[in-house]
Amino acid sequence: MLSLVPAAVPVPIAMSTWRIAGAPSGDGRKATVTTMMKRFVGVAGVSLAMLLGGCVTAQKTPAPASSVSTSVDVPVAEATVSVPASPAIDTSVGALVPQGDVDAAREAGAAVYVSPRGDGSGVVIDVAAGLPAQAEADVRAVAGGIPVDVMSFGQQNLDRAANARAMEDAGVGAFIVIRAPQFEQGKAVSAQYVVLTHGAIAGAKEAIAANPNTIRDSAAEAIAAKQALIDANPGAPIIDTSS
Fold first, then answer.
1. What is the DSSP track for 23-47?
2. Which of 47-56, 154-163, 190-199 is the least confident region?
3. Which among 96, 11, 8, 12 has a CA at the least distance from the CA of 48?
4. What are all long-range contacts of 78-84, with beta carbons under 8 Å and residues at least 24 apart?
5. Would you tell me how many other CB atoms lie within 10 Å of the CB of residue 56?
6. In what order do the strands lie in the sheet with 111-113?
7. Is the sign of the CA dihedral 140, 156, 241, 123 positive or negative?
């Protein structure tokens, strides 16, 4: 602690010669009074020094800094993203339609044939012009004649079902003459003839329900058994795969 005043400051004081009860008289009394006054002055000087020292060493507490917000809200313009329009789908007859556009082309009113043996793309067809060449090629791609065994016959039926669905989706149909085999121990022992309906054949379900057994001994007889239905669908060709 810093002291600005000496511990004891001599202060001239006039000595009185009053008598203190019990104190010695004469010079002894004066000495006693003088000693007491010096002690009083010394204590007062020390107290003043301590008081002044406290004033000098006291530190001010800094005032808290004022908090001022400097943030500014700046409006952000919304970015506009332009999405290019999808190119128009060509729905003219004969146009090739990518796989991803087949459904859209059909929704736009186009008839699209998609080969079950292709890559999923299709071709726009004219339903009034009859069965497209690709559809007939798919029918003939299925193994014809008498199947070797039950497994072969099963695979033929799977392939024929795929062709029938493709025709149905495109809005066209056909009559397919096939062999109707009979099996013993998994092997074909005989084969008659039957006409299958593929795709969009008007009245096919009703005709089959009315006459479910149209298996015949020859292709001509099998065709005759379905003649009424064939006549009701003049745009559907007859494709013979029996041989």
1. SPPTHHHHHHHHHHHHHHHHHHHHH
2. 47-56
3. 8
4. none
5. 10
6. 96-97, 122-125, 111-113
7. negative
Alpha helices in 87-199 (DSSP H): 102-107, 133-141, 150-170
Question: What angle is formed at CA 224 by the lines to CA 222 and CA 229, rounded to 5 degrees?
Answer: 100
* 123: phi then psi, degrees, rounded to nearest 5: -135, 140
Question: Which residues is 113 bridged to in the sheet?
Answer: 123
Position 71, amino acid: S
Q: Are 155 and 178 in contact (CB under 8 A)?
A: no
Q: How far apart are CA 113 and CA 193, in angstroms?
A: 28
Q: Give the contacts of 233 (CB within 8 A, at least 6 positions apart).
A: 173, 175, 201, 202, 203
How many of the other CB atoms lie within 10 Å of CB of 87?
7
The C-alpha atoms of residue 100 and residue 120 are separated, in whole angstroms, by: 8
DSSP H or E stretch at residue 183: strand 173-184
Do 170 and 112 touch, CB atoms closer than 8 A?
Answer: yes
Cα distances from 9 to residues 19, 36, 47, 57, 128, in angstroms, run 26, 15, 12, 22, 134
Domain boundaries, the chain: 1-57, 130-240
* pLDDT, tens digit, 9 for 90 and up, residues 24-77: 445 444 444 444 444 444 444 444 344 344 444 444 555 555 555 555 566 666
pTM of the predicted protein model: 0.64
